[in-house]
């Protein structure tokens, strides 16, 4: 074995240490990607994907180079390890790997143009003198044009630092916005429980209930109401799972307004 000193670069991820904390980024990885695609001098855009986009598979779509598309999306998936701001956009374009069109390729190019605004953006880990575990969850209802499935997402904090995040299309069609939000909450609860167990194995057991913030009051009411009714029968397993964690005070659901 050989001591190489403090970690500075590993598998495309750059590590910088200072008094304020530890900073992770993939600056060189982004520049190499932009140089390879010829977009180093392109005009940047403010967002990685269009709001209310209509990306889907259409019968009359114009096909594009599938190998190139898969290679670019694969590199963007690896980049999202330190760039949570592109996680949703990358999860959308990765759904069309088997049959990409020119519109899908344009969406990938838009992500690259967005990266050109700040290629050195990354994650900052600072000391906040606590190890509280918390998270935020949200979902769009029937956001996918093709199959009307919803997309749920969450991100979690440990000690005030962002540690995990995910954006994923749900496996079943939700019949209401509350159901879509509730399924998203179930995914967030699973992630918080995993983090809690990991911290316990490391010797840092959380001393208070973990907070999972949600902007849907109906979903919060369902989680706290043990009475079954029409809005809950489609999420029966998730409802019992979440209620069990609420009863033992492992988790709490504070409401946060959508504007925040």
Provide an overview of this structure:
- The protein has 260 residues and is of the alpha+beta class.
- The protein folds into two domains: 9-122, no CATH class; 130-252, Nucleotidyltransferase, domain 5 (2-Layer Sandwich), CATH 3.30.420.10.
- The chain is built from seven helices and nine strands.
- The chain has helices spanning 27-37, 66-79, 87-93, 102-115, 177-201, 217-224, 236-247, and strands at residues 9-10, 13-18, 21-25, 122-125, 133-140, 151-158, 161-169, 210-214, 251-252.
- A hairpin with a 2-residue loop joins strand 1 (9-10) and strand 2 (13-18).
- The N and C termini lie far apart (49 Å).
- The model has no long low-confidence stretch (mean pLDDT 83).
CATH superfamily of the largest domain: Ribonuclease H-like superfamily/Ribonuclease H
Overall shape? flat
CA radius of gyration is 20 Å
| Average pLDDT metric | 83
Task: Provide the CATH topology of the largest domain.
Answer: Nucleotidyltransferase, domain 5
Order of helices and strands: EEEHHHHEEEEHEHHE
């Amino acid at each position: 074995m050989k001591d190489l000193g403090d970690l500075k670069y590993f598998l495309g991820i750059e590590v910088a240490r200072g008094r304020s904390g530890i900073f992770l980024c993939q600056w060189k990885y982004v520049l190499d990607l932009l140089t390879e695609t010829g977009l180093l001098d392109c005009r940047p855009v403010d967002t990685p994907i269009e709001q209310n986009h209509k990306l889907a598979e259409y019968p009359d779509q114009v096909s594009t180079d599938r190998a190139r598309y898969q290679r670019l999306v694969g590199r963007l998936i690896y980049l999202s390890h330190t760039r949570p701001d592109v996680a949703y956009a990358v999860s959308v374009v990765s759904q069309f790997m088997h049959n990409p069109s020119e519109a899908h390729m344009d969406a990938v190019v838009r992500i690259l143009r967005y990266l050109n605004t700040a290629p050195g953006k990354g994650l900052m880990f600072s000391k906040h003198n606590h190890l509280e575990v918390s998270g935020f969850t949200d979902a769009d209802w029937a956001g996918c044009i093709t199959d009307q499935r919803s997309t749920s997402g969450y991100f979690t904090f440990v000690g005030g630092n962002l540690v995990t995040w995910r954006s994923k299309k749900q496996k079943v069609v939700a019949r209401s916005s509350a159901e879509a939000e509730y399924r998203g909450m179930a995914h967030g609860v699973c992630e918080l429980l995993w983090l809690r167990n990991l911290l316990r194995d490391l010797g840092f057991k959380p001393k208070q209930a973990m907070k999972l913030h949600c902007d849907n009051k109906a979903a919060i009411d369902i989680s706290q109401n043990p009475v079954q009714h029409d809005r809950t029968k489609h999420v029966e397993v998730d409802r019992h799972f979440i209620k069990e964690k609420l009863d033992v005070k492992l988790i709490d659901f504070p409401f946060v307004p959508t504007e925040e």
